[in-house]
Structures are given as structure tokens and as C-alpha cells.
Amino acid sequence: MQLIAIDSYTAFHEIGLQLNAAVVSKDAAIESLAYSQLVKHHKHIQLWAAMSDDATIPLARIIVFYKPSDPATAYWGWYQANDQLNSVLFWEAITKKQHLLGAKQLVGPLLGTTWFEYRYKLTLDAPLVFGEPIHPELYLQQLQQAGFVPWKQFNTAWSTLERVKIKSLAKLADRMQEKGLTFESITTTLEAQHLRAFHHLTTVCFKGNTGFEEIDFEVYQLLMKGLGNSMDRSLSFAFLYEGQPIAYLITQQLLEAPAALNVDKDRCRVLRNFAVSPDFRNQGLGLMLADFFHALCAQKNIHTYIYALMSAAELSDRGAATLLGAQPLASYALFQKAC
Fewer CB within 10 A of the terminal residue: the chain, N end or C end? Predict the structure, then answer.
């Protein structure tokens, strides 16, 4: 095996096509967007390919980069590989090069930032929602062989109408009005009107989370178009204060009904993400968002709820289990290896 530095993104993309044409061509637009943000905000960006001994057959490709604020961590992503790769030798070579740059750990997968695909799914069932990571089981095996261990973990959980105390919509509306808030569904019109506010709100709410960074508004617009294709807008809504969004919740349709639940996917919805402005926290708005979600679902005879891709370190994951009787459905991880 030879480890070769690639000097252009175009050549790196071509190697990816040789390794997995179906996946790389399907994700080409997102990958290009992610790379445009990566080169703006990161340093020591490295494009590597593992080639056969005669340098004719690609075995793997990977990108490694550093954040200016975190010089001791090397992040990796855009990984494609085949089963001919000696994963122990490959990762050993990558790790040694990062050690020489001063890195203490190698962390991934991360496609630039958490706006794009990251994590690997530990439970290898079909994807449930838009944005869930998809990868071959081979990659988990290769990481394990190379000595990677789960670092930051995430969970998807589920609950049902029987486990959740459904609040009266009238009482919820009264509580909202007491706080001087209005409630609106995220229609395409509302989204277009307040898209810059949603971009800002998302940035300030998730700032500091592992792998999260601000992206350009134009890129955010394109990503929201993709999310909109799977969004249930009748169950996605915002709280507005003086006409501006200060909290939101996005609900998605299921891609596939989870086999483990034996549920009709039309009677199931996914709470994909929500955010509350830091200026309005500690007022119970997060719980009120969840209460509205469950009450509106019950009104539509939707009785199974999935809470997607929650960080295991965050209160929302523990709160879902404690307050909503949520049980694990799938798990995901970022992986770490010492340099």
C-alpha cells in the first residue's frame, strides 16, 4: 500500500468515484458545498489516497483537517475504502502524519461541520430519517481493527401516545400567550420570510457543540431545501416574539417504518430538531415545544414519536427518557484514536 497526497479536490473526487461511484456521485453536490466551507474556515487540509503497491488501484481516500481553535485535534471525513485496504497500516500512516503536526487525537467522521453528514451508525438497520448517516458495515470493522473507539455518542429514541402526557392545546396556547409569544407553522412562506433569522438562531443555539460551526447563509438556504423535502410542515412550527422567531421545532416524515416497532409510518412522526434562543432559555420553552408537538400529533391520530439523533451528553436525550418514557431505537458515534 502507498499513501499518496492528492493536490486537488477534483482528483480527490475522481478517486472517490472509483471507490464507490453510486454514493460519491449521489452526494457530489453536498460534498462540494461542504468543501467550499471547509477551505474557508479550516487549516492544514489534507487530501490522501491509499493506492496499491503499483499505484494503479485506489484502496481508500480520506480528508483530514484542523480547526484553528483546536490545534490538538485532527478531524477526518470523506472516507471511502474497499475491502482490499489494510486498515491497520492505513490508519497508522495517517495518525503518524497528524502526530508530527502536533495532534493528540484523530476524530471523525465529519464532513467538514455538523451541518453535513457526520457520525457512523452503530445499529445497522435501514435509515429512518433524512440526514441519518449511511455507510457500509465494512467501515466500522476497519475502524475497530485500527483501534478507534466511540467518542461522542448519539441516540434515536421512541415513545408512544400511551407514555406521553398529552397537554390541552387550549392550555398550551394560554401559556404561550402569557409569555408574549405567537405560534406559527413553518410554511414555505414563513420559512422564506424568516430564513435569515432561522440561520442565526440555529448558529447561536448550537455554537460550542462538537463539530458545529457557522456556515454561509447561501449554503444554509440550499441545505434547508433538502430538509424541506422530508419536513412535515403541518407539525413543524416556530414561536415568535415581537414578530421574530425565538424557538422552532422541525418534524420529519419517516423514510422507512422501523422494523423493531411494527408501526404504520403514517401514524409516526420524527422530532428532528428544535432550538430555543439563549435569551429565552430557562423559561420552559423547550418543554412547551415538545408539548405542542405531541398535542398536534395526537390531534392527527399520530401515536408513535421518534426523537432523532440526540447527543447522549445533552439534557434532551436524558429528558426524553425521563419525561416521555422514550426507549433507545438506534445509536451513532463519532470515533477517536490517539495520535
Answer: N
- What is the DSSP code string of 63-129? EEEEETTEEEEEEEEEEEE-TT--HHHHHHHHHHHHHHTT-SEEEE-BSSSTTS-B-EESS-S---S
Cα–Cα distance, 87 to 144 (Å, whole number): 9
Q: Rounded to an integer, what distance in angstroms lies between the CA atom of residue 196 and that of residue 217?
A: 7
Does residue 198 carry a pLDDT above 70? yes
3-state secondary structure of 161: coil
CA–CA gap between residue 186 and residue 315 (Å, rounded) = 25
**154/115 Cα distance (integer angstroms):** 15
Question: Do residues 221 and 188 touch, judged by C-beta distance below 8 A?
Answer: no
Query: Do residues 317 and 157 touch, judged by C-beta distance below 8 A?
Result: yes
Phi, psi of 230 (to 5 degrees): -110, 0
Is-contact 39 45, C-beta < 8 A? yes
Spatial contact of 99 and 328, defined as CB atoms under 8 Å apart: no
CA distance 271 to 290: 9
What is the per-residue pLDDT across 144-168, written as a single tens digit (0 to 9) for each? 999 999 999 988 899 999 999 999 9
Cis peptide before 278 (omega within 30 of 0): no
d(C-alpha 152, C-alpha 46), whole Å: 23
Q: Other CB atoms closer than 10 Å to residue 218's CB: what's the count?
A: 9
* Antiparallel, parallel or unpaired: β 237-241 and 181-185: antiparallel
